[in-house]
């Protein structure tokens, strides 16, 4: 089956290579030329979008993640069966889905009746992502989700935990999305506001994706349009 791979960290980011590796090299990469983290569901409609064909299975798009999905499913491969986005360097938990370009890419696919999976990796600072481990967990969760029924207009949002060396192997946990806002703060210097959010201090209502992921497990939420 034809799988489109995209992200919001850019085509040269390690996360999309890890995603491709988790799929055994399957799929067509159609990803932004430059990073677009936090761009939400922005699309390009008032200027041309440049497409660079790097190989038979890899395209760099001078646009947003949603642009990548649109071009992929409407022009590059009209027989697309799945759209996968990630692995994002950073969590996309709870209300993050409205901000995330990673999630927007699969939301756009769902709008066209194509199933999708967004995959992100929470960063527990000062730890650094182990991409080999992220690849292994992603392969595990994808194999688990392929056969799960997915209603048209829905998609999966997956968040990998950030574990330390001696932590137990994470379990896959289906859960609800948190609806609590992010802890947003700014450092103010004159008339300049510098964003200063403390991601790890967000509300952890028991059983929500934030709590599941922060507790060391793989959080999987079903999101409907």
Protein described:
- The chain has a single domain (3-224), classed as Survival protein SurE-like phosphatase/nucleotidase (Stationary-phase Survival Protein Sure Homolog, Chain: A), CATH 3.40.1210.
- Helix content is 24%, strand content 25%.
- The chain has helices at 14-22, 65-76, 101-111, 131-145, 209-214, and strands at residues 3-6, 28-32, 51-55, 58-61, 82-89, 116-121, 154-160, 172-174, 186-189, 192-195, 218-224.
- The strands form 2 sheets. The protein has a 9-stranded mixed beta sheet with strand order 3-4-2-1-5-6-7-11-8, sandwiched between helices.
- Helix 1 links the parallel strand 1 (3-6) and strand 2 (28-32).
- The longest helix is centred in the middle third of the chain and has 15 residues, at 131-145.
- The protein is globular and about 40 Å long.
- It starts with a strand and ends with a strand.
- The mean pLDDT is 96.
């Amino acid at each position: 089956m034809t799988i489109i791979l995209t992200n919001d960290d850019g085509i040269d980011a390690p996360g999309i290579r890890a995603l491709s590796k988790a799929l055994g090299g399957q799929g067509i990469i159609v990803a932004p030329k430059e990073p677009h983290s936090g761009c939400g569901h922005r699309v390009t409609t008032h200027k041309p979008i440049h497409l660079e064909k790097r190989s038979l299975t890899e395209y760099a798009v001078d646009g947003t993640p949603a642009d990548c999905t649109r071009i992929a499913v409407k022009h590059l491969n009209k027989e697309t069966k799945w759209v996968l986005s990630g692995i994002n360097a950073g969590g996309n938990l709870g209300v993050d889905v409205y901000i995330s370009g990673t999630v927007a890419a699969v939301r756009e696919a769902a709008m066209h009746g194509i199933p999708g999976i967004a995959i992100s990796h929470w960063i527990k600072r000062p730890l650094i992502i182990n991409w080999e481990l992220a690849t292994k967990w992603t392969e595990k969760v994808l194999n688990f989700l392929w056969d799960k029924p997915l209603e048209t207009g829905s998609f999966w949002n997956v968040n990998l935990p950030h574990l330390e060396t001696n932590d137990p192997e994470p379990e896959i946990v289906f859960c609800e999305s948190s609806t609590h806002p992010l802890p947003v703060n700014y450092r103010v210097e004159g008339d300049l506001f510098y964003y200063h959010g403390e991601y790890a201090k967000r509300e952890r209502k028991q059983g929500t994706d934030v709590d599941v992921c922060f507790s060391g497990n793989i959080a999987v939420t079903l999101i409907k349009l």
